[in-house]
Amino acid sequence: MLKLENRVILVTGAARGIGLAIARRSLLEGARVVMIDLNMDDFESARELLHEHESRMVLKACDVSNEDCVKELFVELKDSIGALDGLVNNAGITRDNLFMRMSMEQWQSVINVNLTGTFLMSRYACNMLRKSSAGRIVNLSSVAANGNPGQANYAASKAGVIGLTKTLALELARYKITANAVAPGFIETDMTRAIPDKAREAWISQIPAGRVGQPEDIADAVVFLLSDAAAYITGTVIGVDGGLGL
After folding, report:
1. CA 90: distance to chain centroid?
2. CA distance linking residue 135 with residue 19, whole number of Å
3. pLDDT of 68-112, one tens digit each?
4. Catalytic residue among 124, 154, 175, 232
5. Which residue of 46, 83, 106, 149 has the fewest CB atoms within a 10 Å radius of its CB?
């Protein structure tokens, strides 16, 4: 077991999918979890799933791409909780289109959430993480960071997350804060279920492990990086993709 007893972990994009799995696993390991998503209405099913851990859950609405919202969030957390041990930047969106057809809105919205959101959350979390004896930042990248047709915006944002993560690792090591990334492959989520069947089958056929990944596969890697077992690991990218990125 990778115990997170008495630690405060903040997870963005936590209302469903990978973020919800990370929040659930963190709660099972004993953490107090601050769950962030864009709209409080999105938390309805999460509340039902995690009701037995309600006393250690804090649910907050925040647009991670909006600096004013992020700043207000951390002011409130500092006043209400006063501590933070781990930040998981999971919030992300897709707006797929071929590069030649991609609109500025499709490009910018994905960069804003996936990359700028990760930057803003990390920046404002640092003052609280510096006071922790086990400060951790875990950013969600993707196997698509290596390039993927129809996802120039998403690939660029996730490649940027890797560069940001490595820079944070270098700059924050002096404060005993580690920064690592997890790069999922094809994971069973609402996002991938929306992919047309033909394209979905093509993706799955390329996975050496022969199966689609589950959100829990990602949660296992993230919680490892949040734990004491990963205290001497920083600046790395763990691919959780069944070999897809090889």
Report:
1. 2
2. 19
3. 999 999 999 999 999 999 999 999 999 999 999 999 999 999 999
4. 154
5. 149
Measured CA distances, 153 to 103, 110, 116, 213 (Å): 10, 6, 13, 23
Structure tokens at 39: 């709209």
Question: What is the β-pairing status of strands 57-61 and 86-89?
Answer: unpaired
- Enumerate residues 6+ apart whose C-beta is below 8 A from 37: 12, 13, 14, 15, 19, 43, 59, 61, 62, 91
Q: Tell me the whole-structure pTM to 2 decimals.
A: 0.96
Q: Which domain holds residue 137?
A: 8-240
- Which tokens go with 186? 């094809």
Q: Does any domain span residue 2?
A: no
57-71 confidence digits (pLDDT tens): 999 999 999 999 999
Closest residue by Cα to residue 165 from 245, 84, 71, 89: 89
In angstroms, rounded to a whole number, what is the distance separating the alpha carbons of residues 47 and 29? 18
154 belongs to the catalytic site:
yes
Which amino acid is residue 236, in one-letter code? T
Whole-number percent of the chain with pLDDT over 90 = 90
Q: What is the tally of structural domains in the chain?
A: 1
Asked if residue 214 lies in contact with residue 20, where contact means CB atoms within 8 angstroms, the answer is: no
Is 159 inside a domain boundary?
Answer: yes
Domain at 177, CATH number: 3.40.50.720
C-alpha pair distances (Å), 199 with each of 196, 203, 243: 6, 6, 18
Instruction: Yes or no: say if 86 and 8 are a contact pair by the CB < 8 Å rule.
Output: yes
Joined tokens for residue 237: 């990218």
The answer to the question of residue 3 being in a domain is no
**pLDDT score, position 1:** 58
How far is Cα 170 from Cα 81, in angstroms, rounded to an integer?
28
Task: Return d(Cα 18, Cα 217) in angstroms, integer.
Answer: 9
